[in-house]
From TrEMBL:
<keyword id="KW-0012">Acyltransferase</keyword>
<dbReference type="InterPro" id="IPR016039">
    <property type="entry name" value="Thiolase-like"/>
</dbReference>
<dbReference type="InterPro" id="IPR014030">
    <property type="entry name" value="Ketoacyl_synth_N"/>
</dbReference>
<protein>
    <submittedName>
        <fullName>Beta-ketoacyl-ACP synthase III</fullName>
    </submittedName>
</protein>
<dbReference type="Pfam" id="PF08541">
    <property type="entry name" value="ACP_syn_III_C"/>
</dbReference>
<feature type="domain" description="Beta-ketoacyl-[acyl-carrier-protein] synthase III C-terminal">
    <location>
        <begin position="282"/>
        <end position="360"/>
    </location>
</feature>
<feature type="domain" description="Beta-ketoacyl synthase-like N-terminal">
    <location>
        <begin position="120"/>
        <end position="202"/>
    </location>
</feature>
<dbReference type="InterPro" id="IPR013747">
    <property type="entry name" value="ACP_syn_III_C"/>
</dbReference>
<dbReference type="Pfam" id="PF00109">
    <property type="entry name" value="ketoacyl-synt"/>
</dbReference>
<keyword id="KW-0808">Transferase</keyword>
Length: 377
């Protein structure tokens, strides 16, 4: 088996940062009314700016595959060209269409010759699954390099015409902010963007990162679907797919809008997350104090303190000073968030040889979690 190194990290964030006050102008109002839940959700998620693939005239500037293509191109230079890519592995929860696959569409925009492609489906963990496929390919010697990506273009999903009505029960939201995690909540959280990494079997560049291990855990055998799109959740928890509804019901039931079962989210996301974290670090004999930088993908800063408390309860507390996050600046880019966090850390000048970086990515779709340990070379 080969060692695997992240030799380059790049990102692409479209257009300019959008402030909280500009969001509703960009996405539109629902039924002509300003959202009652917006300020509550923003106060709790603490996101200050985010990016949309929408220009100041309201025109869409990039689809998901185009965002991803730009991040891949940003990896390349005279020493490594797009034509040198042997494997392209692209994860997203918001592909531009059902078929062809996301990676196929990115490859089509790259126009860089014949190569292998991989398109893991899912939500936020799809970006980590894209990374793991590339990691295993290079590690096994199947390919000499792999470019792996995570991306989202959800702004078009969040436009006002996608929603039938705004969040109700404002008084309840004030008492328990987690109840805002539904269609309206997602509007004030999600962001567009893409990140990419170059994996190779030899360390190159200024500060390559060795991938020590990657782990993934699913709790779908224990918990029903929580966040979903393309279906309707029945009273017994069964997720009925859009294809089993007549076409005139697709819009009436908002079958293609993202939704969340907020009760399931609050009961499971942190408990299962820390349980899986504990499994991963114990499997590899890693102690919390061995982690120099902890990069947790969270959808909202609302979860930060409660995540820390759950770590204390389960005996895997990672000190605050070792956490690294940029959610407030870039928003929640789903499958791309972990790449965008890593890129900022790599270019921060903070890293030194021997530092351990733990990547931690949850997804609430049906509660899956992915981890990777990196060492600075």
């Amino acid at each position: 088996m080969k060692d695997v190194y992240i030799n380059k990290v790049s990102i692409f964030l479209p257009n300019r940062p959008i402030s909280n006050d500009e969001m509703e102008e960009k996405l539109g109002t629902i039924n002509g009314k300003t959202s009652k839940g917006r300020r509550i959700v923003l106060r709790n998620n603490q996101i200050k700016t985010r990016y949309y693939a929408i220009d100041d005239d309201g025109n869409i500037t990039h689809n998901n595959a185009q965002l991803t293509k730009e991040a891949v191109v940003a990896l390349c230079d005279q020493d490594f060209k797009t034509e040198d890519i042997e494997l392209l592995s692209c994860g997203t929860s918001s592909p531009d269409q059902i078929l062809p696959s996301h990676a196929a569409m990115v490859h089509g925009f790259l126009q860089n010759g014949n190569l292998e492609i991989n398109s893991p489906s899912g939500a936020c963990v799809s970006g980590m699954n894209a990374l793991k496929y590339g990691y295993m390919s290079v590690k096994s010697g199947e390919t000499k390099n792999a470019v792996c990506t995570g991306s989202e273009r959800t702004s078009s999903w969040m436009m006002s015409d996608t929603f039938e009505e705004e969040v109700k029960h404002l008084e309840t939201l004030e008492e328990n902010p987690i109840l805002a995690f539904n269609k309206d909540f997602l509007r004030w959280m999600l962001s567009d963007g893409a990140g990419a990494v170059l994996l190779e079997s030899e360390p190159k560049g200024k500060q390559p990162l060795k991938i020590e291990w990657m782990e993934g855990y699913s709790y779908a055998h224990e918990v029903e679907a929580c966040m979903y799109a393309g279906g309707d959740k029945l009273e017994d928890g069964f997720l009925k797919p859009w294809s089993e509804y007549p076409s005139d019901q697709w819009s009436k039931k908002s079958l293609f809008a993202m939704k969340q079962d907020v009760k399931l989210l609050s009961e499971n996301i942190l408990v299962k997350g820390v349980d899986s974290l504990k499994k991963a670090i114990e499997k590899h004999n890693l102690k919390p104090e061995d982690i120099d930088y902890y990069l947790p993908h969270v959808s909202s800063y609302y979860f930060k303190d409660t995540l820390y408390k759950e770590m204390e309860v389960q005996g895997v507390k990672i000190p605050w000073e070792n956490w690294f996050m940029n959610l407030s600046k870039v928003g929640n880019v789903g499958a791309g968030s972990i790449y965008i966090m890593l890129e900022e850390l790599v270019h921060s000048g903070k890293l030194k040889k021997g530092d351990n970086i733990l990547l931690s990515v949850p997804e609430s779709a049906r509660f899956a979690y992915a981890y990777a340990l990196l060492t600075v070379c």
